[in-house]
């Protein structure tokens, strides 16, 4: 799959978010990377200060990042429908972290 087609899958996953959540996202950028250098097996990574942890002193920070890793997602999927589902789960999982939702809750509710 081309990089552009994969990026479109990430965009499709973001389209699944309710409009209210999209508008509530703040100071975050979503990036597609080949893989994580420290752990090439992970599918995505949120780095930053979750919305629930931000205080009135939160200003002047660089944007949080949500990184989606193309190579491990492609490697784990046998079909386009499976890839579409795994990309959606990964994107929504990392967006959940931006909103302060824990790994435990995400996994328990099918977003892990």
Verbal overview:
- The protein is an alpha+beta fold.
- The protein has a single domain, classed as Zincin-like.
- It has 5 helices and 3 strands, in the order ααβββααα.
- The chain has helices at 3-15, 19-24, 70-76, 80-98, 103-108; strands spanning 28-33, 44-47, 64-69.
- The model has no long low-confidence stretch (mean pLDDT 93).
> Which topology does CATH recognise?
Zincin-like
Are there runs of 5+ residues with pLDDT below 50, and where? none
Considering DSSP H and I runs of 4 or more, what fraction of the residues is helical?
40-55%
CATH level-1 class: Alpha Beta
Structural class: alpha+beta
Strand order of the largest sheet: 1-3-2
| Structural domain tally | 1
Properties at a glance:
14% strand, 112 residues, globular, Metallopeptidase family protein, Zincin-like, 3-stranded mixed sheet, alpha+beta
Outline the fold blueprint:
Layout: H1 3-15, H2 19-24, E1 28-33, E2 44-47, E3 64-69, H3 70-76, H4 80-98, H5 103-108
Parallel strand pairs: 1-3
Antiparallel strand pairs: 2-3
Helix pairs in contact: 1-4
Protein name: Metallopeptidase family protein
Pfam family, one: Zincin_1
Gist of the model:
This protein is an alpha+beta fold and 112 residues long.
């Amino acid at each position: 799959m081309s990089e552009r087609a994969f990026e479109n899958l990430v965009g499709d996953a973001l389209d699944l978010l309710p409009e209210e959540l999209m508008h509530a996202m703040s100071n975050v950028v979503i990036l597609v990377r080949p893989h994580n250098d420290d752990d090439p097996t992970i599918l995505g990574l949120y780095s930053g200060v979750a919305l629930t942890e931000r205080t009135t002193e939160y200003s002047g920070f660089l944007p949080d990042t949500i990184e989606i890793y193309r190579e491990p997602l492609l490697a784990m999927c046998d079909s386009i429908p499976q890839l579409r589902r795994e990309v959606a789960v990964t994107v929504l999982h990392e967006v959940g972290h931006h909103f302060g939702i824990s790994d435990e809750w995400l996994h328990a509710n099918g977003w892990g």
